[in-house]
Amino acid sequence: MIKKSLMLLLWAGISQMVLAQAKPNFTVKGTLEGKPDGVVVLSYDGAGGKQINTSAAVKNGQFMFSGNIAHTMAARFYYKEEPYNEAHGTMLFLEPGKMQLTVPFEDFSKATLTGSATQTAYSGLEQIKKGIEQKYKLQLDSMRDEPDHEKASEIRERLAPFFEEMDQADYRFFDQHPQSYVTLWQLRFHSGDLPIEAQQKYYDKLGPALQKTAGGREIAAEIRKLRNGSPGSKAANFSAMDINGKKLSLSDYKGKYVLLDFWASWCVPCRKGNPHLKALYAQYKDKGIEFIGISDDDSNPAAWKKAVAKDDLPWRHVLRGMDRNLMRAGKTSDKDISEKYGIHSLPTKILINPEGMIIGRYGSEGDELDRMLEKSF
Fold this sequence. Notes:
Elements: H1 2-22, E1 26-33, E2 37-45, E3 51-59, E4 62-67, E5 73-79, E6 89-94, E7 97-104, E8 112-114, H2 117-135, H3 137-145, H4 149-158, H5 160-176, H6 181-187, H7 196-206, H8 208-211, H9 214-228, E9 239-241, E10 247-249, E11 257-263, H10 268-284, E12 289-295, H11 301-311, E13 316-319, H12 324-328, H13 337-340, E14 348-352, E15 358-362, H14 367-376
Parallel strand pairs: 1-7, 11-12, 12-13
Antiparallel strand pairs: 1-4, 2-3, 2-5, 5-6, 7-8, 9-10, 11-14, 14-15
Helix pairs in contact: 2-5, 3-4, 6-7, 7-9
């Protein structure tokens, strides 16, 4: 009888735990203006880290979502339709608690979410950026409407002041809100432009709670990759088939200086820098250095081969080894050379000494690289 009572108490306790875990910790009550019925979707990571896609019926312009999140969470909200319409989708920042969402059907980007302090902070940052974007509207529109990738890249290059202003807006936000989930979210988009020490500084200021989230762990992993591809680290070995179908391994060049040139056929700055890179190669190739071109053209090898031939690049060339299927699943291939070196922007050049240590990392083939090569030889 005592055992039975204990078992009943135990099961009652477990049931209470299950009920407590199942009880929603957030609700979103919404109004879809201009569309009395239909289906809307909210997509986010649940408390267990599992991707949750939940639908809600719109009745008389009203809908509601509820669920469980472990902490503040970025979510995608959209109207369920085929084909997907960008005007009918937006990003929201959910928080535990009660929230109210108002969405004009003609433009989801104008949605307002109350009850989420994170959303309020993000909206403030977005307003600043919209002001910057308005200054460059004509140039941005011409880039978006340009079907030719190389011409669009040239326009993008002329928009450097715009991108710099946008970056600075983010950096000011990071400094003013070091432990905001928005800082965590936006920091992921600056792995290619922020110096490694700046990234480390912002990551350290996030605090333990944000660092333990999936996003925090992702940033920590990116910083590790960047350090692996920065001066002071041993160069990661890689093997790949070169442009002529012959095997190439970095380990084959032990005892020599090696310059890794991360580029792509569609990268305008990369192509513009090739004449100078060829001059450096001609100057130093007989003094104990090898160049290896690593192209981000896995999806278009024909364009890669055409660019190598057109620019008459005399060193050996390989593709980076990106696996798009793995990338879509949030994973990377161990054959992806760019991942090994934390490459997020092109061009990037990495100089390795005869002992296999990285001694230089450069955004272009400019003065810094020239000085290092002159010093090394």
